[in-house]
From TrEMBL:
<keyword id="KW-0560">Oxidoreductase</keyword>
<feature type="domain" description="D-isomer specific 2-hydroxyacid dehydrogenase NAD-binding">
    <location>
        <begin position="128"/>
        <end position="301"/>
    </location>
</feature>
<dbReference type="Pfam" id="PF02826">
    <property type="entry name" value="2-Hacid_dh_C"/>
</dbReference>
<dbReference type="GO" id="GO:0016616">
    <property type="term" value="F:oxidoreductase activity, acting on the CH-OH group of donors, NAD or NADP as acceptor"/>
</dbReference>
<dbReference type="InterPro" id="IPR036291">
    <property type="entry name" value="NAD(P)-bd_dom_sf"/>
</dbReference>
<dbReference type="InterPro" id="IPR033689">
    <property type="entry name" value="FDH_NAD-dep"/>
</dbReference>
<dbReference type="Pfam" id="PF04119">
    <property type="entry name" value="HSP9_HSP12"/>
</dbReference>
<comment type="function">
    <text>Catalyzes the NAD(+)-dependent oxidation of formate to carbon dioxide. Formate oxidation is the final step in the methanol oxidation pathway in methylotrophic microorganisms. Has a role in the detoxification of exogenous formate in non-methylotrophic organisms.</text>
</comment>
<dbReference type="GO" id="GO:0008863">
    <property type="term" value="F:formate dehydrogenase (NAD+) activity"/>
</dbReference>
<dbReference type="GO" id="GO:0042183">
    <property type="term" value="P:formate catabolic process"/>
</dbReference>
<feature type="binding site">
    <location>
        <position position="118"/>
    </location>
    <ligand>
        <name>substrate</name>
    </ligand>
</feature>
<dbReference type="InterPro" id="IPR006140">
    <property type="entry name" value="D-isomer_DH_NAD-bd"/>
</dbReference>
<keyword id="KW-0963">Cytoplasm</keyword>
<feature type="site" description="Important for catalytic activity">
    <location>
        <position position="310"/>
    </location>
</feature>
<dbReference type="InterPro" id="IPR029753">
    <property type="entry name" value="D-isomer_DH_CS"/>
</dbReference>
<feature type="region of interest" description="Disordered">
    <location>
        <begin position="356"/>
        <end position="442"/>
    </location>
</feature>
<feature type="binding site">
    <location>
        <position position="281"/>
    </location>
    <ligand>
        <name>NAD(+)</name>
    </ligand>
</feature>
């Protein structure tokens, strides 16, 4: 059996540090184990285009392993035309939006991920990002590196977190842990926007208040942190229309998925001074192109950018968890054992109802997700899908000049109302935001 793994190159660092398990050099620690069992393991970082190792090896692979940090984008086109033998797709980490789940369902490919492997790592990163934005840390450090010293230039845009209103979009496993970690900072108020209400005891434990309207939610927050999965209902959620409802000078942290935010709208809002800072580690295409606007965007005072590579969920501690978890999923498959229900995304041609909080975003989203209350529900769905590989294989022809990651981001525009209604029905498989502390995003 052939196992194909798409991982990132670790270079000298991975050679010197064997605990960097999510790299091509250290192969999730499963190379010798698979060899002993008589299986072939192909590991590569080359993943874009028809001549990539990923696409050349895919036709013979029975198992695909990839990570959210350097994802192999498994599009509907690849599933239909190249993944001839594929039975199992494992995300070594959390978040399987790089896979066309509808196409996987049609071919009865199981998609599984290592649920919970990243939650502490990401929650800690969120707190770090909030503090570095609010305290204006990055420009201060850059000043020191330049050999300069001007306290007032930094202090003019540095604030305390105490007394601020902080809100999370999504109060799942990560979002709730963020709320827990914010309690000692004595914030003015902690808010959350989620389709599912936290259990009363959990909400009381962190003193969090739920806001059910997204516009009202962002309008109250000094800091907004995004801790929601990427799906049809969250793609492009934070765009120019919603940004108009943010407090002037608000800070935004996104360690969930880059495509939840419109890249150009965020850069424009930062440059105009409407928002004071944006930080995170997730990009709408990964690795991010060198000309990506988030690399160099600044606020009106020359700061406000806390972007880094996608690493919040891949600390050495997290890598051990997701490497062991990926091996466990693979071992269950090889031994014919059932998978842990909490790790399953799709199985046997169906979306796995692995979480008690799982529900369709179409049940409640309606006008809540998008600010334009004049649109019909199907128009809301159509506006937010933006080609998340739902039924695009039947409605759009693949553009061979685009990378696989770009194909997944192609827009939904141009489809008839009938097609939108069809997508609306299919979207009932989509998951909610936080899912009562059961949904992760990395």
């Amino acid at each position: 059996m052939k196992v194909l793994a798409v991982l990132y190159d670790g270079g000298k660092a991975a050679q010197e540090e064997p605990r960097l398990l999510g790299t091509t050099e250290n192969k999730l620690g499963i190379a010798d184990w698979l060899k002993e069992r008589g299986h072939e393991l192909i590991v590569t970082s080359d993943k874009e285009g028809p001549d990539s190792v990923f696409q050349k090896e895919l036709p013979e692979a029975e198992v695909l392993i990839t990570t959210p940090f350097h994802p192999g984008y498994l599009t509907a086109d690849l599933i239909k035309n190249k993944a001839h033998k594929l039975k199992l797709c494992i995300t070594a980490g959390v978040g399987s939006d790089h896979v066309d789940l509808n196409a996987a369902n049609e071919k009865k490919i199981t998609v599984a991920e290592v649920s919970g492997s990243n939650v502490v790592s990401v929650a800690e990163h969120v707190i770090m990002d909030i503090l570095l934005l609010v305290r204006n840390f990055v420009p201060a450090h850059e000043m020191i590196e330049r050999g300069d010293w001007n306290v007032s230039q930094i202090a003019r845009n540095a604030y305390d977190l105490e007394g601020k209103v902080v809100g999370t979009i999504g109060a799942g496993r990560i979002g709730y842990r963020v709320l827990q970690r914010l309690v000692p900072f004595n914030c003015k108020e902690l808010l959350y926007f989620d389709y599912n209400e936290l259990p009363e005891a959990d909400a009381k434990a962190v003193g969090a208040r739920r806001v059910t309207d997204i516009q009202e939610f962002v309008a109250q927050c000094d800091v907004v942190t995004v801790n929601a999965p990427l799906h049809e209902g969250t793609r492009g959620l934070i765009n120019a229309d919603l940004l108009k409802h943010f407090k002037k000078g608000a800070w935004i942290v996104n360690t969930a998925r880059g495509a939840i935010v419109d890249r150009r709208d965020i850069a424009a809002a930062l440059a105009s001074g409407h928002i004071n800072g944006y930080a995170g580690d997730v990009w709408d295409v990964q690795p991010a192109p060198k000309d990506h606007p988030w690399r160099k965007m600044k606020n009106v005072l020359g700061g406000g950018n806390g972007m880094v590579p996608h690493y919040s969920g891949t600390t050495l501690d997290a890598q051990l968890r997701y490497a062991n978890g990926a091996k466990s999923i693979l071992e269950n498959y090889l031994d014919g054992k059932p998978q842990e229900p909490g790790n399953l995304i799709v199985e046997n041609g169906q979306y796995a109802t692995r979480n008690s909080g799982r529900q369709s975003f179409t049940d409640k989203a309606g006008a809540a997700l998008k600010p334009d209350s004049q649109k019909s529900t199907t128009e809301h769905i159509g506006d937010t899908i933006k080609g998340n590989a739902d039924s695009m294989a039947s409605t759009l022809q693949p553009n061979e000049s685009k990378s696989d990651s770009q194909k997944l981001g192609d827009t939904f525009s141009g489809n008839s109302n009938e097609n939108k209604e069809s997508l609306f029905q299919q979207a009932k498989n989509a998951i909610g935001l936080g899912e009562n502390r059961t949904q992760d995003t990395h």
